[in-house]
Amino acid sequence: MPHCPLCSSADVSLFHEDANKRIQRPYYQCLQCQLVFVPESFFLSQSAEKAEYDLHRNHDNDSGYRQFLKRFSDPYEERLRQSFKHDSAEPLSLLEFGCGPGPVLAHMLEASGHHVTLYDAFYYPNLSVLADTDYHGISATEVIEHLHAPKDVFELWLGCLKPRGILGVMTKLVKDRAAFAQWHYKNDPTHVCFFSEATFAYLADQYGLHYEQVDRDVAIFCKF
């Protein structure tokens, strides 16, 4: 049995096995943190993974995509304002992690007056920006489900945040086995980690964070 990539527990069980034409792989669930995950042996190569991302077509002039992101940006910016309302009027320093080739969210946040730094392992692979420990906020929209080492990345994010910093995550959530079996989200071969509210609550407890599920696929964490 594989170990959980989020909490390292060996207490895992088979959750689902898929066998459609495009993708054939098993999914395990950790009985400690409830993460559903794909074993490492089923990860795509870097070149194959990037080829999938190159198919994405997200542009600033796509009003539907901007409206989709607004469901994230509105509560994210609201929590940032609440957390840093007593600070100076200087622009907040934000990190958009996993921005992809078209950083539409960054442009939206910059239009609100924030300073946004980009990081993406394939399109903006500047590791030096991850050495900064002074970000007011970090956004990860449709990112966390792609992570091969989610524990390492989650801890990296927390290390980059100021006290009272806000981490915003957007990802679709696991409900139950029956829904998972019919779920289109698992059919993307680059999706290897699937979170639930129980998983996010575990992370909040483990790292001493305040956690809110502000929309069906938007979670906000605050670092004390």
Automatic annotation (TrEMBL):
Alphabetical UniProt keywords: Methyltransferase, Transferase
InterPro entries according to UniProt: SAM-dependent_MTases_sf
Pfam families registered for this protein in UniProt: Methyltransf_23
One BP annotation, GO: methylation
One GO MF term: methyltransferase activity
The protein's name in its UniProt record: 2-polyprenyl-3-methyl-5-hydroxy-6-metoxy-1, 4-benzoquinol methylase
Organism: Bermanella marisrubri
